[in-house]
Amino acid sequence: MPPRAAGAVSLSTKKLGKKTVLDTFRQSGSFKCLFPRTTTPDLDAVLLNTAGGVTGGDSFRFSGKAAEGTALTLTTQACERAYKAQPAECGQITNLLTAGAGARLNWLPQETILFNGSALDRRLRIDIAPDAEMLMVEPLIFGRAAMGETLTNIRLRDRIEIRRAGTPVFLDAIRFSGDWHKHLSRPHIANDAGAMALIVFASKAAEGHLDSVRQLLPEDAGATLLGSDLLVTRVLAENSFTLRRTLIPVLRKLNKDTLPRCWML
């Protein structure tokens, strides 16, 4: 059996004067974290999979906590890649995030690219305090369009759960096995889209952003409120370039006109 990649990163923040700084930090295996310099008092962290991707049998786990009154932005150095897996194997990615009282948490990973034959089980759980703010995005790319790849055989389980003060406020789950391209090519499902993304913004200011976000969206995207403090946006796109062209202005709008540097390279 070929070697398998595994890694874990955990971190938490604390206040130091007006700045957000690291409180605890641990990393192991082929999962690393970098901390670029910023000109703001917030803390940015960049996750890096040194194995180069995820295949069957791989396991990666991240735990991040924005403590009371802190501001933490999490992103990835590059797109994640889910490679072809053996029939009985599946790659595992688990992300557990927490935002304390008055904290701001941004979960802004770059795209995950699904390769034909990939098998991925990904879980994201976010727990936020009643007065915390949270912005998250999860973009998915369906194959390598430049190489003419179509996803005729994949296994995907993807679950996103958001809780506020312990109460579930949002749940999104995908469970699929088979011909992904054929499934998404149906007009009433995805009309042959090559990429999609989910954006969730949890904030007392969410309702005030609804109209301005809708003005930034193309016809194959939509935004709605699930309560006055939860704005949900879904985007379908022809390819990764078109998807990113939609995502960047929306994310900047919801994040005080800024994005991690990795997104702009």
TrEMBL record:
Belongs to the UreD family. The gene is ureD. Required for maturation of urease via the functional incorporation of the urease nickel metallocenter. GO terms for cellular component: cytoplasm. This is Urease accessory protein UreD. It comes from the Bacteria. UreD, UreF and UreG form a complex that acts as a GTP-hydrolysis-dependent molecular chaperone, activating the urease apoprotein by helping to assemble the nickel containing metallocenter of UreC. The UreE protein probably delivers the nickel. It is found in: Cytoplasm. Keywords: Chaperone, Cytoplasm, Nickel insertion. GO terms for molecular function: nickel cation binding. PANTHER family: UREASE ACCESSORY PROTEIN D. InterPro entries: UreD.
